[in-house]
Amino acid sequence: MKRAVFLIVCFVFSCSAVFAAAPQERETIAKRPYISALVVNAAGGEVLFEDNADAPVYPASMLKMMVSYIVLSQIEEGKLGLHDMVQVTQEAAKMGGSQVYLDPREQFSVEELLYALMVQSANDAATALAIHISGSREAFISSMNATAQRLAMNKTVFHSEHGLPPSQARQADVTTARDMAILCRELLKRPEILKYTSTTTRGFRNDTFIMRNHNQLLGQPPGVDGLKTGYFYLAGFSIAVTAPKDGQRVIALVMGSADRKERDAKALELLHKGLSQLPALPVAAQSSTPTDEAPADLAAPAPLADSDVKPQQVEVPSTGTSSGWGKFFLGLGLGLLLVVAAILIAGRILQRRRDKNQYLHR
Hints:
- The protein is α+β, with helices and mostly antiparallel strands.
- The protein has a domain at 26-278: Beta-lactamase (3-Layer(aba) Sandwich).
- Helix content is 40%, strand content 14%.
- It is built from 10 helices and 9 strands.
- The radius of gyration is 43 Å and the shape is elongated.
- It has helices at residues 2-21, 64-76, 90-93, 110-120, 123-134, 137-150, 177-188, 193-197, 260-276, 323-360, and strands spanning 36-41, 47-51, 85-87, 107-109, 201-204, 209-212, 226-232, 236-245, 248-257.
- A 5-stranded antiparallel beta sheet has the order 2-1-9-8-7, with helices on both faces. The protein has a two-stranded antiparallel sheet with strand order 3-4.
């Protein structure tokens, strides 16, 4: 009996110790309609709307914009090429969550992995690119933080290259809506990014895997063509959207929403609001607006330089004969007729004088 009681006590104590050592489940920070929101003019960074824009949030997969920014910067500097082949590592292949199921036996071009990164939001593609560029995940994450500091994203700290939920051994990535707006603006200075962010579906691995963009607002009025979504349970739903208008562009961010549909509705509402506040551009600056200038085919020609002036050539209508020789023979014939006529007249005059002299001397 005592032995049985002793065993029960030991079991209860062991269970208590295990539960005490187990990590407490974290609660989501997401709120309704969101934790923070910000709308800016992409060109100058002017704030068009903000609400709690400096609140700390988890970026989740939105941090993949930093990965793409570093990739495009490396290409711009000539350190990387779109067609460079990236060898998949075992470490990259093990990344879970959204992925394109990379295999260590495979190689893909930088461009294909960029599509996987921004369309499928593939975590394995993010890790493959990070290791290819910096040699290790840790080195690439250091580069991400150094880049954030250089861009004055002062409230951002990255602990991963993919944005997955933090494990017990890793802290969560942290940012703010204002810092994410800085990254969006810098990314849009490389407009080729829109080729990737505006793609809704694309085949991968010879079209054996179809990637689908998580951004449900793409293509919706007023012409959404980017940029990135992010989600995991602790972070809530976040999004950065952008659209152009009359040569200008607006970026709207909604961070930490508890509901995806509410996030999307708010993002679209704020995007329209921002576009309506853009300053009117001069008429001449709007390529699609007619100007007071004369059309190109009706405008007065520009004055020519002396070297451009060419002597005018006047065409002489054809008469059916060689004009030079015809004039020569015509002139010669008229001249002979005049000479003959003059000789005949002179002969008549001389003859009359002779006849008169003969008559007087008779």
